[in-house]
Structures are given as structure tokens and as C-alpha cells.
Amino acid sequence: MNPSDIHIGLKGVKKSYGKKEILRGIDLTVRRGEILSLVGPSGSGKSTLLRCINRLIDIDSGEIRVDGKDIRKIDPVELRRRVVLMPQNSVMFPGTVMENVMTPLKIAGIEGEKRVVNALRDSGVPEELFHRDAEKLSGGEKKRVALARAIALRPEALLLDEPTAGVDPKKVELIERSILDMVKKRRLTVIWVTHDTEQALRVGNRIASIKDGKVVKVGKKDGFEWEGVY
Length: 230
Ligand SMILES: Nc1ncnc2c1ncn2[C@@H]1O[C@H](COP(=O)(O)OP(=O)(O)OP(=O)(O)O)[C@@H](O)[C@H]1O
Ligand SMILES: [Mg+2]
Hints:
single chain; about 230 residues; alpha/beta; six-stranded mixed beta sheet; four-stranded antiparallel beta sheet; 7 helices; 10 strands; globular; binds adenosine-5'-triphosphate; binds magnesium ion
């Protein structure tokens, strides 16, 4: 692979909490504009890995590069604008849906109601929800607002931590569709964590599987041999 095709690269990444090794030497590359599905059992370190990539936590050893640059050499605030995490729990801030999407922009010193509206539309949030109390939305609606909050920052890469978990199964494909459309429209690089192997196959250009803090398999849809369903 041409090194300039690699958008996010991890090499020998290790992270422990106390004496417990969570990530035990992760090697992974994500190409520009690709969706990499990341699967693995509960507790295997998926969320920890995403949190390392935008430096919400620092790794103990190894290296993570974004666009060829070691993330320790990138200003963390800039990094978190370029590589945005949609966390596993879509916690809403007090206030309306629009305010929820506006807040991270304000923190970043960006004004722009238009951006907020576009991000909400692209995430499939219906207009009648824009002025509702965000904390009172359904789980699926909150996921969409969290997505809008992430993309309003106009990132180059998205780290999606189980973006459809807990969503009514009938709505899962709708959310999936709006993410895929938006990712294509904005040409984003994505790491998409999911427990749903069918979804991993549907959405990912490649699939990586981690277990006990190591990548045990990575491959394309065709020829990817599954050990089983997690
Ligand atoms: N801040 C922390 N302090 C101590 N241990 C932690 C911390 N965060 C995560 N862990 C532990 O690290 C391990 C991996 O957690 P992580 O959340 O990355 O797993 P996961 O693969 O995302 O699981 P799930 O599929 O259930 O979301 C777990 O054993 C967890 O208890
Ligand atoms: Mg997790």
C-alpha cells in the first residue's frame, strides 16, 4: 500500500489500566475514504482504541499516525476536530437539539447556524426536532443528534462507537443509510465499531476483528473468514 493512502495508522499500540493490559500491540491501517468495521467481544478494547486515536487517552507505547504525523505532535484540540469520536453513549447536553450541535462549534470558536442545520439534515434529524429538548429524545434520535454533533465539526475522519446500538431494529438500517450517504458525500474516513457482524459486512470496505487487545484478523468482505458471531 502506498504510504500516502494511509489516513490512520497504528503500530504496536499498547495501553494498560493499572496492571491490566487492554491493548496489547495493535497494528492497523485505515485508508483515506475507507470504512473499516471493527468487531470484537465486549471488553476487547474497541472503545479504548478509538479513545486513543483522538487522544482522549494517551497510549503507553507504539505509535498512532494521522496523515503520516504522529498524533503526539498534533495539537490535541486540532486533532479532535479532524478526527471526531461519536462515543458509545450519546449523552445529550441540557438544551435543545440545535444547541447540542452548536456547543462543540462554539467551543472550537466557530459560529454557524447553517452548519448546524446542514449537519442535522445530513444525519437525518427531522426539522420538527430541531427545537426540542435533546434529553427527551428517543435513543435512536439521540444517536442521530450525536452524529450531527460529530460531523458539524467537518472532520476528515469519524470514529463511530456502536452508532446503532440500542436502536429499534427497524430504524437501524435508516441510521446506517444516513451515515453511509453522509460519509460518501463528505468523503470521510471511518472506523465503525459494531457488535453486529451483519452490519460490519454491510457497511465496511474492510473488517478488522480484535480479541484480548490484539487484531486477530483483518480482511475484505470477500475472503474474510469469520470465527463466529460475537
Ligand atoms: N478508564 C478505565 N479504567 C480502567 N479500566 C478500564 C477503563 N476503561 C476501560 N477499561 C477496561 O478496559 C477493557 C476494555 O474496555 P473497552 O470499553 O475498550 O471495551 P469494548 O471492546 O469497547 O467493550 P464493549 O463492546 O462492551 O463496548 C475492559 O475490561 C474495561 O473494563
Ligand atoms: Mg465499547
